[in-house]
Amino acid sequence: MDQAGRTALARWLAAAAGVDDLRLVSLDKLSGGAIQENWGLTVEFGGERRDWVLRTDAPSGVATSHGRAHEFALLTAAHDAGVTVPEPLFLCEDVSVLGKPFYVMARAAGRAEGHVLVRDAAVLAAGDALVERLGHELARIHAIAPPRDDLVFLPMPDGPPALSRIATYRRYLDEMPDPNPPLEYALRWLERHAPESRAITLCHSDFRTGNIMIDDTRITGILDWEFASWSDPMEDVAWFCARCWRFGNWQREAGGIGSRDAFYSGYEAESGRAIDRAAIPYWEVMAAVRWAVIALQQGERHLSGGEESLELALTGLRAPEMELDALLDIAAIEAGAAP
Amino acid sequence: MRQRPGPEELERLAAVMLGGAMLPEDPKARSYEQRLAAKALSIAAYDREHGAADLAEEIALFAALYGEEIVIRVHPDDSVRIAALNLGLVDQIRAGVWDEPTTALKDLLMMQVRARLARTNPKYLKARLPGN
Q: Which phi and psi angles does B36 have, rounded to 5°?
């Protein structure tokens, strides 16, 4: 960000915070974020320093992710519901400030990288206690139910959420030139076995290791709300437990961190509702299909000629991992051997 | 049907990423970019060694599914034939033709996934399907 941008930002932040002595101490782009850009900033006013994060659009995003204003509304709704999220502070929809909308939130301490956390001795030692608390967090998210005036931008699924997902993933596959029989087979199986959802709630829709900030063994923030939707809460439960989000630590079925029982126990204690255990294997097949489709979409960004990138091309080539998971999970369900 | 990109494209991308530099022999000494390039080159090497055999196996499994005469009639060129067969199969699956999957279909789908994983992530394949 150039000096003019920094000056404009500092001026806007001072007005938003209602102070006249705000000084922008530092502003650094944070790593990660193919869909959003995150900037760490430190400001000083009233004699105190504060660490914040500014979130705005990356040059190339994914079609289904929410805009920053919607994401700010989701973060605010979650914060108000008692979910551990970075405190949402200010939203700026005036594009004259930075050229695109952005919002600012408190900076959560800790780290979120999945492949690091599932190998961290302290995290693993506290694994069951951590995932039990994550069960509580997820249940608080699922306590947010439609209709909500502040979340009217979230579309309601037209029929069972599973069928809505299947239609979306087929549409994405149709946008790609290469046929994929294993994924089509999994989608057809999902279509034929789609459950009637018992409830529709707010779902984070990317609640997984990698999107949860942990400081030592303390949960400091549920991050990345850009895919949140009204859906079947079991979809979130299964996404967290799906093999593809255990980062190789497969024995710890809850996010590569702890046991499934501990995660379920926290969720049930907070929500007062039983996890629909019969539905989870189904939604884990859906999780594998979804991540495979996303990987293919990333690969297609390179293959279509839109954005030459070996990293994107190799991400697309990860899809067969999830294709295998889907086929093996379907076989296990049909053999009555699903977890 | 081999997933894109193919070996020529992967080698080109690796060359661009390396910018003419050599890969360090010790994998631990490689940077993130060098690891990506090494991965691309290993996939390209797999393609050159096993690509033809994988294609032949896939066509044989389509023949087991549909009958050899039907598969031969699709197109004389193997790469065009396999693309057409996969396109047709996808349409059939979505239309419910294979709702009661035969062993031949399951074998074909599993072979397709195994071949792709042997190419891109053999470690994952071995972990999930010991013996592969």
A: -60, -45
Contacting residues for A39 by C-beta, under 8 A, at least 6 apart? A1, A27, A28, A29, A30, A53, A54, A55, A56
Q: Which residues contact B44 (CB under 8 A, 6 or more apart)?
A: B6, B7, B8, B10, B11, B14
Contact B120 A311 (CB under 8 A): no
Q: What are phi and psi of A131, to 5 degrees?
A: -70, -25
Q: Which tokens go with A329?
A: 């999970």
How many other C-beta atoms are found inside a 10 Å radius of the C-beta of residue A4? Answer: 8
Is cis: bond before A147, omega within 30 of 0?
Answer: yes
Token pair recorded at residue A90:
């200010």
Residue contact A328–B128, C-beta within 8 A: yes
Residue B21: how many CB atoms within 10 A of its CB? Answer: 11
Q: Is B77:B114 a contact under the CB 8 Å cutoff? A: no
Nearest C-alpha of chain B: how many angstroms from A318?
A: 7
pLDDT at A298 over 70: yes
Going by C-alpha positions, the residue among A117, A70, A96 that lies closest to residue A8 is A96
pLDDT one-digit tens code per residue, A143-174:
999 999 999 999 999 899 999 999 999 999 99
d(CA A234, CA A318): 25
Shortest distance between the Cα of B69 and any Cα of chain A, in A, equals 21
Per the DSSP assignment, residues forming a β-bridge with B108 are: none
Question: If DSSP codes are grouped into helix, strand and coil, which group holds residue B46?
Answer: helix
- What is the chain B residue with the closest CA to A302? B5
What is the pLDDT at residue A306?
Answer: 85
A58 CA to centre of own chain: 16
Q: What is the ipTM of this complex?
A: 0.95
pLDDT digits (tens, 9 = 90+) for A32-57: 655 678 999 999 999 999 999 999 98
Across the interface, which of B90, B114, B128 has its CB nearest the CB of A184? B90
Q: Which residue of B has its CA nearest to A323?
A: B113
Task: Characterize the bridge pairing of strands A23-29 and A218-222.
Answer: unpaired
Q: Which residues contact B73 (CB under 8 A, 6 or more apart)?
A: none
**Looking at beta carbons, which residues of chain A come within 8 Å of B128?**
324-325, 328
Question: What is the band of A60 on the pLDDT scale with cuts at 50, 70, 90?
Answer: low
C-alpha torsion sign, points A293, A294, A295, A299: positive
Mean pLDDT for chain A?
94
